[in-house]
Specification:
Layout (H helix, E strand, L loop, with lengths): L2 H15 L8 E4 L5 E3 L10 E2 L6 E5 L7 E4 L12 H18 L6 E2 L18 E5 L2 E7 L6 H13 L3 E7 L13 H9 L4 E4 L6 E14 L2 E4 L5 E4 L2 E13 L3 E2 L4 E6 L14 E6 L7
Parallel strand pairs: 8-9, 9-10
Antiparallel strand pairs: 1-2, 1-3, 3-4, 4-5, 6-7, 7-8, 10-11, 11-14, 11-15, 12-13, 16-17
Length: 292
């Protein structure tokens, strides 16, 4: 693998985990806070952490690409690739429930929406679609890792058709209370819905759980040493918030038909303009803020 391909892969991986602190090939020792470079370090020099986001890092010694550090990544238990049974169950449970509540809502799964060349609207196939009080709603059960541009494209296309969109992240098991690292698309949904993302797992049945990504911290131990010039150095001795590892703060379990409302969302541009949220129509929960 060329150094260019190596660099491109590292940048893509960094964007996915939400931190570029290890791209330069350096990490810090947890006990001493000294900087180590992957090219001349061994695993015995660890344990390591990222000096930018303060999460744990692991040293990767590879024969096919340059030695590097990678973030040690506790992720949500999203459905693994090819896990179609749970994905299908999620769609059917929610669709059947909404069909029972709104028998005239014309609820269906995988119903195609044809493209409209005149209005420059792309074709869509929402996982679940129907009507609540004569207003159209599309529910996307996000089982695979869509790119942000594709999510934006679909969101815009639904909104141009005056269809509200609800993005749902299905999990294979209950989301634990331990800190985790939301994936790139999870963080984007969190931005769309004003600081919460909506999760489903089998035990919830037809309900969803809104989750806010709260602050999680790690303690940086106090350490001291003398550098090469003989000067005394000291670092650590404080708690530091992680940059991208979050503490899940769950809201109340919600029924899709009663815990949400149609909402016209204004455009929002965060620090990273590539992750801008377009003006759109969302199916937004009606909860007041439950996190500090």
């Amino acid at each position: 693998m060329s150094s260019f391909e190596d660099s491109e892969n590292n940048l893509r991986a960094a964007e996915e985990v939400g931190c570029f602190g290890l791209v330069g090939g350096a990490a810090k020792n947890i006990r001493t806070n000294k900087t180590h470079y992957a090219i001349n370090s061994s695993r015995s020099d660890g344990p390591f952490y990222c000096g930018s986001c303060f999460s744990d890092a692991v040293l990767k010694k590879c024969s096919e690409k340059r030695d590097h550090f990678a973030h040690k990544t506790p992720l949500t238990p999203v459905l693994p690739k090819g896990e179609s049974e749970l994905h299908q169950k999620c769609k059917e449970v929610i669709c059947d429930h909404l069909s029972g509540i709104f028998p005239h809502g014309n609820w269906a799964t995988e119903r195609p929406i044809e493209k409209n060349k005149l209005k420059k609207l792309t074709a869509l196939r929402p996982d679940i679609s129907g009507r609540i009080e004569e207003k159209p709603l599309a529910i996307e059960i996000q089982a695979s890792s869509l790119t942000i541009p594709e999510i934006i494209k679909r969101t815009k296309s639904y909104s141009r058709r005056k269809i509200a969109i609800l993005w749902v992240v299905p999990l294979s098991e209950e989301l634990k209370k331990t800190p985790f690292r939301p994936r790139l698309y999870e963080r984007y949904f969190h931005s769309i819905y004003y600081g919460r993302a909506y999760y489903w797992w089998p035990a919830l049945g037809e309900k969803l759980v809104p989750v806010h990504y709260g602050v999680s911290k790690r303690h940086i131990d106090l350490s001291s040493w003398y550098d090469e010039s003989g000067s005394y150095q000291e670092a650590g001795g404080y708690d530091k918030p992680y940059k991208v590892i979050k503490a899940p703060e769950c809201g109340a379990k919600l029924n899709i038909e009663t815990g949400f409302k149609f909402h016209s969302r204004d455009e929002f541009t965060p620090d990273n303009e590539r992750k801008s949220v377009p003006a759109c129509i969302t199916w937004q929960d009606t909860l007041t803020q439950w996190w500090a």
